[in-house]
Amino acid sequence: MAGPRPQDVLPDSASVAVKIVVVGGFGVGKTTLVGAVSEISPLTTEETMTQAGAGVDDLFGVEEKDATTVAMDFGRISLNERLVLYLFGTPGQQRFWFLWNGLFDGALGAVVLVDTRRLEASFDVLGRLEEAGVPFIVAVNQFPESPVHPLDEIRAALDLAPDIPLVGADVRRRDSGKDVLLALLRHLHDLAQPLEAR
């Protein structure tokens, strides 16, 4: 057996691993984000969409999409020589949401991706995270054809609490995806501080 490629081997200096979950509705860019930032070849479970989803999956705004994640995406990014993030992207269609429970186990936090063409697809996602007690931030993925709104208007439309970070992103770009992950880590760090230090 050949084993892993040298660039895929985790360095011996890595001592802290953090599990992050990337969630959102169908077609918001979860697989793209994981693939853009991962330093290893990402694991994806994308399958060609078939007639089985007709009438079940809501394709509004993503009619041209021809593949979908059916289990999860997985990637890894080292933020420094000690800290490693393991990224788990969830499937977007509600018929696969039963898989989310296992993916949330052990997760320190989550990134919720939203698309301004279909903000209503985010409501159930946000509700599930709040019920599960998983800390999260929201990233607005800027699709070329999406309407652009000020972040404060998007915050109001999503009814987000003021303490939940909301950032804009183009998750096709590695630097933008990394900025989203860093925003989540800063939020998690802030939450870990005593109330009097905030």
Write the layout of secondary structure elements.
Layout: E1 16-24, H1 30-37, E2 46-48, E3 67-69, E4 73-78, E5 83-89, H2 100-104, E6 109-114, H3 123-132, E7 136-141, H4 151-158, E8 166-169, H5 174-192
Number of helices: 5
Oligomeric status of the shown chains? single chain
Number of strands: 8
Output the structural class: alpha/beta
Shape: globular
Word description of this protein:
By secondary structure, this protein is α/β, with parallel strands linked by helices. It is 25% helix and 22% strand. The protein has five helices and eight strands. It has helices spanning 30-37, 100-104, 123-132, 151-158, 174-192, and strands at residues 16-24, 46-48, 67-69, 73-78, 83-89, 109-114, 136-141, 166-169. The strands form two sheets. It has a six-stranded mixed sheet, with helices on both faces. α1 (30-37) crosses α5 (174-192). It is globular and about 50 Å long. The protein starts with 15 loop residues before the first strand and ends in a 6-residue tail after the last helix. The mean pLDDT is 81.
Brief synopsis:
The protein is α/β, with parallel strands linked by helices. The chain is built from 5 helices and 8 strands, in the order βαββββαβαβαβα.
Features:
198 residues; alpha/beta
